[in-house]
Specification:
Blueprint lengths: L5 H8 L1 H5 L18 H7 L6 E16 L5 E2 L2 E17 L2 E16 L10 H5 L21 E4 L1 E8 L1 E3 L2 E12 L17 E11 L5 E12 L9 E11 L4 E12 L11 H4 L1 H4 L3 E12 L4 E14 L1 E15 L1
Antiparallel strand pairs: 1-2, 1-3, 1-15, 3-4, 4-5, 4-6, 6-8, 7-8, 8-9, 9-10, 10-11, 11-12, 12-13, 13-14, 14-15
Length: 328
């Protein structure tokens, strides 16, 4: 039974809110205008030398698993907490580069740990079938305590263009594991795979209103494991409203659909050792958020969402994010 890597999917679930961080509009303090102009503001901020740095905290709770046959399995809980650092900088007018990395700490509480060897007492107590070929190099993480490590670096390049009253931002992003971390665990921080994403985001504010929308689509090409392709498509939707110069609210949805093997597996086989690197991990999630523009430099953002559909993936009961962004 394949179960997704928690932090990797948490990052995907938060994708809709993440795509909106760099270009949330809003008038600067002291300006007397009828309402914020997100497109004009975003274009103004695409000048060379402009940029932002942000730090985010994400708290996620998993309370089950969406099995390949469509059933919902309760196997315990996974709690994830992470700190994410991101930098966005315009090297030329309309051209920006991005970089970032999360540090993630996960804890599994349940009766179905992943056992790389037969040694852990939790594996003996729960009578877990162990691998025919043990993997002592794979750290046992499902012992009921938090285990933390850095996950994947991401490096991206984005072009920012205006087409009439529309704002288009095509991008390419590479995801590279920061080190060879453990992927065989209910509480693993990721899949330990390299990926490349080709994406584009379209933004538009309706005329004579403070209402805007964003649509993002991406195609992700992932490193294969034992010949299995897990390439996938991503879709992000956002509908937001600029209440005033300080406050922005938004509703968003995000989804992932792609390739992958969903079983069956022999739980003692080498294929099972790599099952989280080979599963499709498809999902759809929805949530809401708000931004508070403290001044022309600082913005405090928050969002809360949950998974509404899944296939061969953990069930995310909720994912909460709080982020502080400083522009320069």
């Amino acid at each position: 039974m394949g179960k997704t890597k928690l932090a990797a999917c948490a990052a995907l679930l938060l994708g809709a809110s993440a795509t909106s961080r760099a270009h949330d509009g809003g008038s600067l303090p002291g300006e007397t205008v009828a309402g914020p102009e997100p497109i004009d503001q975003a274009l103004h901020e695409t000048q060379r030398g402009h940029g932002s740095v942000s730090i985010g905290y994400v708290n996620t709770l998993v309370n089950g698993f969406h099995a390949p046959d469509g059933s919902f399995k309760r196997f315990g809980h996974v709690r994830s907490q992470s700190i994410e650092l991101d930098v966005d900088y315009f090297v030329f007018d309309k051209w920006s580069v991005q970089a970032g990395i999360p540090y993630i700490a996960n804890r599994f509480d349940g009766t179905a740990p992943h056992c790389p060897t037969a040694a852990p007492p939790q594996c003996v107590a729960n009578q877990i079938k162990v691998l025919k070929i043990p993997h002592p190099e794979s750290q046992f993480l499902d012992d009921g305590t938090f285990h933390g490590t850095a996950q994947d670096w991401h490096f991206g390049v984005t072009y920012h263009a205006d087409i009439g009253n529309y704002f288009l931002a095509p991008s390419i992003t590479a995801y590279i594991p920061s080190h060879d971390y453990t992927f065989f665990a209910q509480s693993a921080v990721g899949q330990d795979l390299q990926r490349v994403e080709l994406a584009a985001t379209l933004s538009h504010q309706f005329e004579l209103t403070n209402l805007y929308y964003r649509i993002g689509f991406g195609r992700v090409f992932s490193e294969k494991t034992l010949g299995q392709s897990i390439d996938y498509n991503k879709l992000d939707l956002e509908l937001g409203y600029f209440i005033n110069e300080r406050w922005t609210t938004k509703l968003f949805a995000t989804a992932k659909k792609g390739n992958g093997y969903d079983g069956p597996y022999d739980p003692t086989s080498e294929l099972f050792f790599h099952h989280d690197q080979r599963a499709p991990h498809n999902y759809a999630g929805a949530g809401f958020g708000a931004d508070y523009h403290v001044n022309d430099k600082y913005t405090l953002s928050s969002s809360l969402q949950r998974e509404i559909w899944g296939h061969v993936i953990f069930n995310f009961k909720y994912a909460f994010e709080l982020r502080l962004t400083r522009e320069f």
